[in-house]
UniProtKB/TrEMBL annotation:
Organism whose genome encodes this protein: Mangrovibacillus cuniculi
Membrane-spanning parts: 6-24, 67-85, 97-114, 120-144
Protein name (record): Uncharacterized protein
Key word Membrane present: yes
Swiss-Prot/TrEMBL keywords: Membrane, Transmembrane, Transmembrane helix
Higher taxonomy: Bacteria, Bacillati, Bacillota, Bacilli, Bacillales
Taxonomy, superkingdom: Bacteria
């Protein structure tokens, strides 16, 4: 069996946390991620809230969702994605976790503020608020990673 590429690892993790780990033969970790995903998904009524959101019923999605359970999801999702990416790496990359970690942080913050977030008068709800905060998390994490890598390179060149 061939090894996963970084893109495959991330895409399988987006499909379902734990799939990439299972494909990479990390069965215990993969099963743990899948079980946790199902547990959080069911306890938070996440799929029903997704359905309501995409049907334009974002207020109903907010009423449906159990935010206390859903707030675990970004951390699980991004951690499983980072882990899959790390498995697919052929060598260690410093600070590669930062875009994943900052996405988890900002999506969680987006979920906390989701009852109040609107854009152009459109109420975003918990699903679209979370989605909206992924990109800033990735960008901030990548910016901090770039700064740290440059700082480390300067420190190395000076010594």
């Amino acid at each position: 069996m061939r090894e996963l590429t970084k893109l495959e690892a991330v895409l399988w993790s987006i499909a379902l946390p734990g799939f990439a780990q299972l494909l990479a033969r990390s069965y215990i970790k993969g099963l743990l991620f899948v079980i946790l995903e199902f547990l959080i998904n069911v306890q938070s009524d996440f799929n029903l809230a997704i359905m309501h959101s995409f049907l334009g019923e974002t207020r109903l999605a907010m009423e449906t969702i159990n935010v206390q359970w859903l707030m675990f999801y970004p951390c699980l999702y991004m951690f499983a994605m980072w882990d899959a990416y790390k498995i697919a790496l052929k060598k260690e990359e410093p600070y590669i976790y930062l875009p994943f970690a900052f996405s988890a942080y900002l999506v969680t913050i987006g979920l906390m503020y989701s009852p109040k977030l609107t854009i152009f008068g459109f109420y975003l709800g918990p699903i679209f608020s979370g989605i909206l905060f992924v990109l800033p998390g990735v960008l901030i994490g990548q910016l901090i990673r770039t700064i740290l890598l440059k700082r480390n390179k300067l420190d190395y060149e000076e010594s």
